[in-house]
């Protein structure tokens, strides 16, 4: 199994200010230096990265700079992460426009995976029909990804309409998209990450590993999740996909988090 690291641990996670007045420009952003993140990830020993759509789009007018950055650090781009509201018909065209721009650029840089999160919670709460709409829109993401030879996956996320176990179970039969479990988000949403991986193993082509305990996201081995069991499930099912380790939201040093997770996971992937 191949392992990458997410650059979003360097800095805070925000939305691009342009999205306030223009949906098509509403990207995720990590406020830290992408160059610093890439250099640190490489020094720890990782060979691939995942990056937020906004940080990647920052290189859309200077593609050679990003290509050279990866080359100098002996890294490749594995995946890009994006998101959308998805459920509002008035803006879905703008959201798909944004996602397609991201997919096109990611493909140019040789990425394999397009990961999306989202599904807005209305001010009045979730409507039952929102799940059907979200499922259809995620199928639209599949169509975009196929156009650029990417594998599309859905990432359940805190703050979205798919953060709890029953919400995930409600959505999955309504769409054909792959599942990208984030172990910490699943646990924080009240689920059991081991059981989710076991249940949906046939729809998992890509997975995010992040530890969790007492309301905090943590480096691997620092929380309560038994990653040995998760790795075993993947191996028992001849998993051919990739793993990305995340440490967004971790209060400690991002480089130290990358080192701790690398050391921890290495013992299972010898």
Q: Which CATH architecture?
A: Alpha-Beta Barrel
Number of helices: 10
Give me the strand/helix succession: EEEHEHHEHEHEHEHHEEEHEH
Q: Give the helix/strand class.
A: alpha/beta
Amount of helix? 25-40%
Query: In the CATH hierarchy, what is the superfamily?
Result: Divalent-metal-dependent TIM barrel enzymes
Rg is 17 Å
Largest sheet: 8 strands, parallel
Name the beta content range.
Answer: 15-25%
Return the average pLDDT rounded to an integer: 97
CATH class category name? Alpha Beta
The end-to-end distance, rounded to whole angstroms, is 10 Å
Which descriptors would you attach to this protein?
single chain; about 270 residues; alpha/beta; TIM Barrel; eight-stranded parallel beta sheet; two-stranded antiparallel ribbon; 10 helices; 12 strands; about 20% strand; globular
How would you explain this protein's 3D organization?
This protein is α/β, with parallel strands linked by helices and 270 residues long. The protein has one domain (2-266): Alpha-Beta Barrel (TIM Barrel), CATH 3.20.20.150. It is built from ten helices and twelve strands. It has helices spanning 34-44, 53-57, 63-72, 92-108, 129-147, 165-171, 183-188, 193-199, 227-236, 254-266; strands spanning 2-6, 13-15, 28-30, 48-52, 76-84, 113-118, 151-154, 178-179, 206-209, 211-213, 216-218, 242-245. The strands form three sheets. An eight-stranded parallel β-sheet has the order 8-7-6-5-4-1-12-9. Strands 2-3 form a two-stranded antiparallel sheet. The model has no long low-confidence stretch (mean pLDDT 97).
